[in-house]
Design brief:
This protein has about 120 residues and is mainly α. Helix 2 crosses helix 5 and helix 4 crosses helix 5. The radius of gyration is 15 Å and the shape is globular.
């Protein structure tokens, strides 16, 4: 990964973590309208929404780890660098996040692999 992309990812992680900390700050209003991106072949839109809903219920650091590891497909080392923590923290947060999502989804998380 080049320096500019790494810097951009770091900025996004910091902004996400900072925004979740500041609940008092005025936020943009959420809408029910979904983006126009079409699901990839073989992907069930309802299943994707279910996984994204479970992801939204995770604590901020666990949410960030899952997004970086499974949606952005970064390795543990890169995720740790972007989040400013140790590789062990990334591994433990990933484990806790997946356990929480399993409980929320009541099924195996093979779904995350299909969302990559």
């Amino acid at each position: 990964m080049d320096g500019a992309a790494r810097c951009a990812d770091r900025i996004l992680v910091n902004a996400f973590l900072d925004e979740r900390r500041r609940l008092w700050r005025k936020r943009e209003a959420t809408t029910e309208r979904l983006d126009d991106a079409a699901p990839t072949a073989g992907q069930d839109p309802a299943e994707r929404l279910t996984v994204l809903d479970a992801l939204a219920k995770l604590p901020r650091r666990q949410h960030a780890v899952v997004v970086l590891r499974y949606f952005r497909d970064f390795d543990v080392q890169t995720t740790a660098e972007l989040m400013g923590c140790s590789e062990g923290t990334v591994k433990s947060q990933t484990s806790r996040a997946l356990a929480t999502m399993r409980n929320l989804l009541h099924e195996p998380l093979d779904t995350l692999e299909s969302l990559r």
